[in-house]
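To close the chapter, one final illustration. This time we ask the reader to focus less on the individual chains and more on the assembly as a whole: which components sit near each other, and how the overall shape emerges from the parts.
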Amino acid sequence: MYLTQSLHRAAQQTPDAAATIFGDRVRTWSECLDRVARLAAALRSLGVGPGDRVAILALNSDRYHEYLFAVPWADGVLTPANIRWSPAEIAFSLQDAGARVLLVDDAFAPALPAIRAAAPVLDTVVFCGDGAVPEGALAYEDLLAAHDPVPDARRGGDAPAGIWYTGGTTGTPKGVVLSHTNLLMSALGSAASGEFMTPGGRLLHAAPMFHLADGAAWVARNAVGGTHVIVAMFTPRGVAEAIATHGVTDVLLVPTMIQMLVDAPDAAEFDLTGLRHLIYGASPISDAVLERAAKRLPTTEFTQAYGMTELSPVATLLLPADHRVDRLRRAAGRAAPHAEVRIVDAEDTEVPRGTVGEIVSRGGHVMLGYWNRPAETAQAVRDGWMHTGDGGYMDDEGYVFVVDRIKDMIVSGGENVYSAEVENALAKHPAVASCAVIGVPDPEWGERVHAVVVLAPGAEATPEELREHTKTLIAGYKAPRSAEFVDALPLSGAGKILKRELRAKYWSDADRGVS
Amino acid sequence: MYLTQSLHRAAQQTPDAAATIFGDRVRTWSECLDRVARLAAALRSLGVGPGDRVAILALNSDRYHEYLFAVPWADGVLTPANIRWSPAEIAFSLQDAGARVLLVDDAFAPALPAIRAAAPVLDTVVFCGDGAVPEGALAYEDLLAAHDPVPDARRGGDAPAGIWYTGGTTGTPKGVVLSHTNLLMSALGSAASGEFMTPGGRLLHAAPMFHLADGAAWVARNAVGGTHVIVAMFTPRGVAEAIATHGVTDVLLVPTMIQMLVDAPDAAEFDLTGLRHLIYGASPISDAVLERAAKRLPTTEFTQAYGMTELSPVATLLLPADHRVDRLRRAAGRAAPHAEVRIVDAEDTEVPRGTVGEIVSRGGHVMLGYWNRPAETAQAVRDGWMHTGDGGYMDDEGYVFVVDRIKDMIVSGGENVYSAEVENALAKHPAVASCAVIGVPDPEWGERVHAVVVLAPGAEATPEELREHTKTLIAGYKAPRSAEFVDALPLSGAGKILKRELRAKYWSDADRGVS
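The assembled structure is written out below.
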């Protein structure tokens, strides 16, 4: 099994159908096959040999799609850089991966000098944008024109297909190495649920393609055939327009994007009734958003995919039918057709249903390992089980409910407090726009439950008020004993709150380091 | 990825749902998990170690299902024996595989002495039937009762999952070794087509479970969750009754079985409208049968799966929508979501669309190899491509049309004649019930086109009549120059005509051996 297999299949079965639609630029599958084989030839001529990492730092585009096929075609290893990171972090990942070649677009070309300075391994830059070619960079279209197609390496199976960097929320970035089989297992297993991707349909890429959430949707769309509709980045209007204009049937979004899409006044004019499947991840969707979404998207089925990059990335699916059951809407779903999932204690023993423990998963979708980090790999994957670091419990029907990151659990006065539970209670206060709950050092309680709150525009509240509100909903020992008000919460590239950063100022001097 | 993963998932998500329905015997998934873990313990106690082959020779049953899970659970390798073979052939396969342990049911217990005599490797027999335990055999239920569950070995990935013997139509049986990943790729890829298996539905096992056609449906049903309804063997009435009584949603049949099901007077009383998916293989379905089937099964979608054991077994799928297009009904479908398929010449170069060559396939579904036959493996799998031995062509949309076994092609007077084409023409004569066309030695033509014909009851025809009839449909040089009439055609376990046997009497003295 190899990532490029689907390209051969699409070019064989639907050569004249659109492979990619990116603004006004439409490429057929037969064009795509030709261009990928030329780009692979160019990469070879630039010295890319078997197993060499080739990076990209770019907004979404049809050339990103070509990159995703061309690197494995050339027998290289994909290394998509996180566009939300600073140049220093990006340079770290390129240097760590040993990526000699980088594709970069207009949006990120200005960061090149800083990246080059901090990533000396980088010797070749290919400009895949449409504007002026930066100094010292090669032009993408020139390279394609200058090279004849080469045959596909067709390497696959357990060989590394790519390295995706992760760790933004928990510390030093780590490269997650995934094989071709890893990625295909997750994609085919998810598609086998029958509720994931319309066969032969059109998938919109609005979430960033560097992230494996969208990357995995790309693999699944290729597996079942169809067309990629691509927008450079998410905007509510851009997404609505693309859905209406290009007959998009499927889209992957994070919950924040769903909310923005259904609430945006400037997106209201577009007909979204062609949308069949909306896949979302990163966090459950609130009932309020789901209700508004059901009105705006009356013909769309919702599927939640839970997992992580290390799981290629899907472990559980919450299917459309599950969304119609009240008690299940807070769940992350059940083990997908390719995955085994269980909840274990610190000794890796399975805990009884309903008991909180760590969510672990096993199967063909578990990563090969962290790039050059055997100790971290051994710590994360034990006896074949990937330890997600997420705390959760499972009900009697196998539905998984995520309660917290294990590291975000607060031990206050000897009691476990799940920050997610406190956050849900806090969020019900009308003055709270968004919030994060962390543990901070406390001489009396060991850790103290502390809230970091963004107030709604024009709203006011005191820490005492919020504590009293919370106590009406959950046990008193879980209510925040202190609170601070901020303008915004720090977010990772995947839209997750960076609690590490929130904790830093409280823990920098204490004996519990930031982990 | 491991075959037992789906058992854990089902027991976790639907512990009280039926895993198997076999006559009056219903077992839930939690019972099934317990029984499988006990059977695995029993196998271990019988000396089955990692990688050891464990055989079964039995009609379909719920215990066959338990065997399929228990052997990998115990870290053994499945070795399902072909129930249609003679005791000598079965013994050959057991001896070849080195299977020390054999499960056998009532139907095949009488063959034990002959098998034991010819397969000295066999030292332990477990009786999995319901009648009297044969002398020297251990009783299945006693073994389960006597052993406590052991943990699942959870070995999978590229490790061998089983050995399926094949070769009945072409000569010496060969053991096809398939890995866990092989089987799961084919199953998930087929299910990802969205037209294969009703999620959470009920699959009827009426085709023999030893054969990988049904075995693969078993893997796919487990992957998407649901229930196995099992009948000991195919009878039209038994199948119709099971569909109507047990809410069967999916079934795998070979075309002959479809014809018998829709035509059988004693099956007419049953309501079959619950059947959603009918998967068939082995050969295309005739328009006449399809029309009758559409009337009898008005709510059923038809999917053809083409492949072979060596492809785990699916390479192409002809989906329900394809069946509604006249010209596609003779096709074998297009490359499935897990497969690459092409048509090549004798030098392995891809031929132009419409040109006949050998059908080859590549992907994660290609077997590990033939058991202990590296030369045959190297001959069959070249540069990752499994060579099917089937002749066919591909149209401009990637649809594959199988014309013949490469070995069944006749070269007469320097012209290639595809026996399938001649057979299709012959079969249109009202007196012909079934037929096979072979090449026989001829001093003038090299090979002569020869027909072996089963006449319809009460019908009559002469070789000259059949030749003249055929010439009205296809070129004169393709029409049979001779014919013989027989009562029945020899069939393989998979229902394929054994042309090798038909050719034997003509070729035994000639220089072209039976291949």
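Chain B touches chain A through 46 residues (CB under 8 Å). DSSP finds 16 helices and 27 strands in chain B. With these observations in hand, you are ready for the problems at the end of the chapter.
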